[in-house]
Amino acid sequence: MPQTFHTFAAGARAPALPLLAAALTLALAACGDGNVKPEAAAQATAQQRWNDGPPPPPLSPTIPQDVSVPQANPDLQDLQDDFDLLSWQSFVAVNWPAGPDGNPKPGATIGPDVPTVWENWKESREIFLPGGATPPPWGQDTPPPAVCKGLGDATLRLTQVGKTPNVLDESGEPFETGPLIDQNGQYVRFAILTNRDMFDNIVANGLYSTAGQKKFGKPANFALPKGSPKVGAIMIKSAWKVLGANDNAARFHTAKALVYTNPDENEGVQAACKLQTMGLVGLHIAHKTQSAPQWVWSTFEHVDNVPTQGEPIDKPRYNFFDKNCTTCQVNQPPPRPWNPNNPHTVPTQVMREIPLTDSTKRLNATYQALLQKNYPGTVWANYELISTQWPTKANNPIDPTGNPAPSFLANATLETYIQGRVPQASSSCMACHNNATMNSQLPSDFTYLLQRAQ
Amino acid sequence: MVFDYMDYFVSMSVGLTGFASEAIAPEIDPVGIKAVYLQAFDEKLPDGMAEQILQRYKALFDAAGGKPGNEEQLVGQMLAGSGTSPAQILAMRQLIFLWYAGAWPTVQYDNSPSRGQTFSSVISAESYTQGLVWRVMQSHPMGSSTYNYGYWAADPPPLSAYLENPV
Lengths: 454, 167
Fold this sequence. Notes:
Structural class of chain A: alpha+beta
Largest sheet of chain B: 2 strands, antiparallel
Oligomer: heterodimer
Strand content of chain B: 5-15%
Number of strands of chain A: 9
Mean pLDDT of chain A: 85
Strand content of chain A: 5-15%
Order of helices and strands of chain A: HHHEHEHEHHEEEEHEEH
Distance between the termini of chain B: 37 Å
Radius of gyration of chain B: 17 Å
Number of helices of chain B: 9
Helix content of chain B: 40-55%
Helix content of chain A: 10-25%
Distance between the termini of chain A: 69 Å
């Protein structure tokens, strides 16, 4: 039987670990029996969260400038909840219907499947131009690749067939990566866009060209001056699947897109372009806020994407998992050569390796209900937050990554093959992007985009 | 209220390692290595020994006023044999090794001049990266760095930043 003692007096310096202390009080009640399971107990305690507090604020087209922490003495789970709320607020705001100027449409509300605010931001292709040319001003389009000409209008041009290899190559580790193939045998396509604050910083500092980066001569810095009314730099990385005969398009946010196969991406692949109807399956939102110099990393997925290892496989159909396949290897990239122009490629069998926390699941349910109530039948209720990575110690002098929480975060459509919890090998937004540099070899403030400069 | 092992484990570890509580068990702690180490401390020792050591530490802690600040003095008494057996003293030394190396050491005695060898096994990839030895070195674990590209060309931060103790 465990002994009964007093704990430290309140306010004493040493303990101050309410979450884990409470969890371990439970776990170690059986210590004398050699039955210590602190991890399980910690999880059990951490799950008693979200929705204990006030309901989320109303749906709004305003992207929050920063996280709001209402708790007087927040613990780790409190703060995670606060950042998850920021993620959903941001998701709603960037997916608000766009008006003709690309800003939130006056009088509109989130719900209908129409072009969104973020889809009017600048694509990376429009910023880093051949020869390091100055990009056209905000709001002015850049012509599509020549092979796409004459194929009609599109709301978004999807040019990448895999998460850019540069991202992983620059980490110096032999990460396994590759394209993602949906259940129809089609390559998933990706696009990266930046908001105006980020675009303006790149242009003002000449960071869109290698020569400009060299001239700049110091690390990039997307931080806003203190007290700035601006929202700050935001990057969005999106993943899309071709909507085919087996897909229910009504469940997706869709876009008619010029799907461009870039011959530079894979050896021996011909340039190609098709006008296709695409469904949004993954969305990263990275936001440089005042309190998070390492950026806040929010990631969302379509709810039908993949099952989670260790949880029921209970959906009739998944976008990236075949429940009837008993021989499919999970989370393995397709064999080379990779050619997005192939009419059919063997689908990737994908499962989520790190489950969503119960707290995040509850927040997802809350927002999905809010979105449904706001606009019955909306496609936006078919998306879920996977998690939010944020710095627990933003100004740590010995760790520029700021001690991220959670330590690992992966989107099944964007970091399919590097899920898990192995340091230096598994996906961690901050740990990976902390290594990002410009072509001048100077730090690029957590973005690999600047390496695309010519 | 039951015995809050973690509080006393952290407090005793402050005394054993010389690191501040905030350094080894931050208030906002996304890694939670202290839970891994407490579990290892409990499982690697004979049944009940971890609890006995923590109870002894608690008795000394309470006798000294029940306030943080004299952890090193308390563990010094225990390492000197005040109410502790040789096996418990060895266990406390093993715990020091665990905090610094992220590995649990096993000592095999023999008649050689060095009186034996120490073998150690790393608890996990995370414990390896969390080892305090890297901080003392003002460095980072081999194969795992959170510094910015090009850090090797700059002086490291001062030792006090690594120790999170005023010096």
